[in-house]
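2.7 Reproducibility. Because tokenized structures are sensitive to small changes in the input, we list the exact sequence used for Amidinotransferase, including any N-terminal residues retained from the expression construct. No trimming or masking was applied before prediction.
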Amino acid sequence: MSLFPQAPNAVVMIRPHHFSPNEQTAVDNSFQSSSKFDHAEVSRLAYEQVTRAAETLRSHGINVHIFEDESTETPDSVFPNNWFSTHLGGQIAIYPMYAPNRRKERRSDVIEFLKAHYRVQDVIDYSGLEYDNLFLEGTGAMVLDHIERVAYAARSNRTDSHVLERFCSHFNFEPMVFDAQDKHGKAVYHTNVLMCIGSDFVIAGFEMMTDTKRRDEIIRRFEFAGKKVIHLTEAQIGAFCGNALELHAGSKRLLALSSTAFAALSQSQKALLEQSVTLVPLDVSAIELAGGSVRCMLAGIHLSKR
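Resulting structure tokens (single pass, no recycling of outputs):
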């Protein structure tokens, strides 16, 4: 058992050479920017921001595996946490993706690299469920509590509860499904923009959960597990405060989050978090135009090294 089952020490990142906000995902992702921008400039900035983010994480002791994406057909490839996840005990899951062009992000070279450098017993591939219009976009669709073994999931086009149940029975999680909406009544497209679970804290936009009974049950579960519960406003969720990932380097724990999110947290929220983790803000402002932030960019490696 890892010392920090919730907080990996290694991540996979994809560096895009032709990044742009994805037209195919704009329909149900209200976090995407609809304003006009210079595509060439945004693409250049995204490349630089991934490079700098990886350097910063490495300087904090995180093992970053970077893969290049030179394709022009995969505008969202910078978000690999949606198409695969890794799990203690040597398992990898591969997921069915909602947008057709996101299905092209799945890469055998990434999986082969992991098999070569880490102990991988089993790869479970759910991607064929796309043919039945069933989707579960990895750790975007689910926020996993690796300690309590609960998979939190907000219902959306990208989170099918039947696929979630299948995942949970394979990987020994309890599914905890809920509804979450923004102030316009639109479903939150990915659970990981709403909620971040750390080893001993959770930050989430609980007010966006529409069923008060389910919301109270979820908060009680976190409190019962001894986690500090930090409430985010809808405006803070819009600034990607929920889209963060706890990592560890040696005995210290970090919280990787975006500069946008860092600026939107209150001083008291930062002070509460800093009792547990060192906050590591990363400038990913160009990438946030696509409706995702730091958590989406990091596919955590919960595998043992070879």
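The first helix runs from residue 39 to 59.
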